[in-house]
Amino acid sequence: MERVIEYHTIMVTITADDIIPLTRKTYTDPLEVGEYLMAIDIGEDIIAHRFSG
Q: Which of 1, 3, 6, 2 lies closest to 18 in space, CA to CA?
């Protein structure tokens, strides 16, 4: 399974809700927008864990 993870984006005035529709214009597979302290497990499945501290 492939997945795109967008990261290293400095979001000052835009949010993930702004970025996702732009990406979806050309990419239809699974997509995650990275967050501070997000962990990604890559194995048979790809699982993104968001920090909940």
A: 6
